[in-house]
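Support request from a user on the community tier.

User writes: "When I paste my structure tokens into the form, the page sometimes reloads and wipes my input. The last time it worked, I copied everything first. Here is what I submitted, just in case something in the input itself triggers the reload:"
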């Protein structure tokens, strides 16, 4: 968490007494977002709102960004309002899955949406893990 605090710097003169809207591509674990919201409020922001340009990430992704296990994902078991409360934002908006598909000008069948809706193109374990992934990773350590 200290590394996140160090990389985020807020310019007090630009946010003090203002309503701030932060645009993010996604919220995965919530760690960075929570620290950012707190830093903005500490710098005097009146209100901090977030607009996320993806739907909530509720399931692990094994194909793009390896997000590991479901329990580590902030939106896995929390409502949007619970995520908002946890990160300390005054407002939180996510792009809907239909909105994302419309923005990409595509149909659901053209995209992998497993991390958004749990519809994986291959079978996964009941806990949401990828079969054989741990064994494969352990075997790679000797390479």
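"...and here is what came back when it finally went through:"
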């Amino acid at each position: 968490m200290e590394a996140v605090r160090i990389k985020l710097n807020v310019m007090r003169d630009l946010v003090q007494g203002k309503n701030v809207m932060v645009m993010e591509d996604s919220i995965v674990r919530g760690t960075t977002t929570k620290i950012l919201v707190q830093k903005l409020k500490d710098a005097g922001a009146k209100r901090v709102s977030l607009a996320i340009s993806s739907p909530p990430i509720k399931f692990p992704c094994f194909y793009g960004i390896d997000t590991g296990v479901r329990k580590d994902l902030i939106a896995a078991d929390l409502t949007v309002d619970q995520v908002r409360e946890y990160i300390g934002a005054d407002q939180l908006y996510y792009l809907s899955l239909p909105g994302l598909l419309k923005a990409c000008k595509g149909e659901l069948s053209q995209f992998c949406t497993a991390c958004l809706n749990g519809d994986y193109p291959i079978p996964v374990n009941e806990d949401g893990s990828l079969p054989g992934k741990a064994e494969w990773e352990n075997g790679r350590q000797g390479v």
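Agent notes: The reload is a front-end session timeout and is unrelated to the input. The domain at 2-140 is CATH 3.40.50.2020 (Rossmann fold). The mean pLDDT is 88. Escalated to web team.
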